[in-house]
Design goal:
- The chain is mostly helical and about 325 residues long.
- The protein has 2 domains: about 5-185 and about 300-330, HUPs (Rossmann fold, 3-Layer(aba) Sandwich); about 205-295, Tyrosyl-Transfer RNA Synthetase.
- The chain has 13 helices and 5 strands.
- The protein has a 3-stranded parallel beta sheet with strand order 1-2-3, with helices on both faces. The chain has a two-stranded parallel sheet with strand order 4-5.
- α1 links the parallel β1 and β2 (about 35-45).
- α4 (about 90-100) packs parallel to α13.
- The chain is globular and about 70 Å long.
- Bound molecules: adenosine-5'-triphosphate and L-tryptophanamide.
- Adenosine-5'-triphosphate binds near residues 187 and 200.
Length: about 325
């Protein structure tokens, strides 16, 4: 493991994961499992409670999210998969990092501003310090690479700033991580309002495709996707966000470049574009859905993967917590 690059990422078990989560994050998590990487993926359940959750639902969502990661190709023989709450080092480091993060930095986080506008009745301190917990997730594993969607760029930069600040003040403690944000696909847009990102908390279910949606539902959502009225198929994010989003999805799911993609649709209408994109998505998601049904039914297997994952994660995380506590002046 010494000369492998450490990859770490997390996903919140809040609601139904979407095509945006898949393309911006989970799909790359699976692809990053290579000879020269060691990948650590967590279900960020501690992050989830920054917004009020029903405990019964949360229990179900976090289990399903773990099963879905396995179904999407994360291989527990090669990578570790764990629940954030099973590894207490995350909260232990988080406190020390909180005391090395400024209120001003946290007030600039756009996700905090968005979420506090959305949940006016519950602007809790956890929602404000959420990016510090995320920094702890990352820095605990001496991470090299963090695969996330574009919306997490600001949080990632904060994690880097905190690491650099701590290292300067107390001596070399944390590796300063790099982001891995896909160019095309880092920001999959809503099918109904293509100027907004696709979000699982969108009250309009036609705006997002859920990874577990039925094929007929997926096809129908693409059929209703908002485009524009000039009828020309070209990639132009500014003027044609709906069509460009469909082209981006097609390019990712077929592995074709954007030029090839646009060429494939020369002379086609929007109807054909939507059907072809839906077919490509359905083809990749169907086997994942099938594996999800098998894996999620095997409770013992999922529990074993998670307990092995937590044990391996703790072995790594403990070293960093000891180091950071020692540098801070907390010795036994
Ligand atoms: P919400 O949409 O409810 O705010 P979320 O889906 O953004 O939640 P997470 O589940 O924690 O929040 O996101 C997991 C990963 O999915 C992150 O790396 C995030 O950047 C990525 N992601 C989320 N939405 C998109 C999107 N529309 N396009 C690309 N990546 C996305
Ligand atoms: N905040 C992230 C989820 C997340 C994460 C992480 C991503 C929690 N911990 C560590 C990368 C690394 C989000 O997508 N909302």
């Amino acid at each position: 493991m010494e000369n492998k690059k450490i990859v770490l990422s997390g996903i919140q078990p809040t609601g139904t994961p979407t095509l945006g989560n898949y393309v911006g994050a989970v799909r790359n998590w699976a692809l990053l499992q290579k000879e020269d990487t060691f990948c650590c993926y967590c279900v960020a359940d501690l992050h989830a409670i920054t917004v009020r959750q029903n405990p019964t639902e949360l229990r179900k969502f976090r289990y399903n999210m773990a099963a879905l990661l396995l179904a999407a190709g994360i291989d527990p023989e090669r990578s570790i998969v764990f629940m954030q709450s099973h590894v207490p080092e995350h909260t232990q480091l988080s406190w020390v990092l909180n005391c090395n993060t400024y209120m001003g930095e946290l007030s600039r986080m756009t996700q905090f501003k968005d979420k506090s506008a959305k949940h006016e009745d519950n602007i809790n301190a956890g929602l404000f310090t959420y990016p510090v917990l995320m920094a702890a997730d990352i820095l605990l594993y001496q991470t090299d690479l963090v695969p996330v969607g574009h919306d997490q760029k600001q949080h990632l930069e904060l994690a880097r700033d905190i690491a650099i600040r701590f290292n300067n003040a107390f001596g070399e403690t944390f590796k300063v991580p790099e982001g891995f944000i896909p160019g095309t696909g880092g920001r999959i847009m809503s099918l109904q309002e293509p100027e907004k990102k696709m979000s699982k908390s969108d009250p309009n279910p036609n705006g997002f495709v859920a990874i577990m949606d039925d094929p007929a539902v997926i096809r129908n959502k693409f059929k209703r996707a908002v485009t524009d009225c000039d009828g020309e198929i070209r990639y132009d994010l500014q003027n044609k966000p709906g069509v460009s989003n469909l082209l981006a999805i097609y390019s990712i799911f077929t592995g074709k470049s954007m030029d090839e993609t646009v060429n494939d649709f020369k002379g086609s209408g929007y109807g054909a574009l939507k059907t072809t994109v839906a077919d490509a998505v359905v083809e990749e998601l169907m086997p994942i859905q099938q594996r999800f049904r098998e894996i999620s039914a095997d409770k013992e297997y999922v529990a074993k993967v998670l307990s092995d994952g937590a044990e391996a994660a703790r072995r790594m995380a403990r070293k960093t917590v000891s180091k950071a506590y020692h540098k801070t002046g907390f010795d036994k």
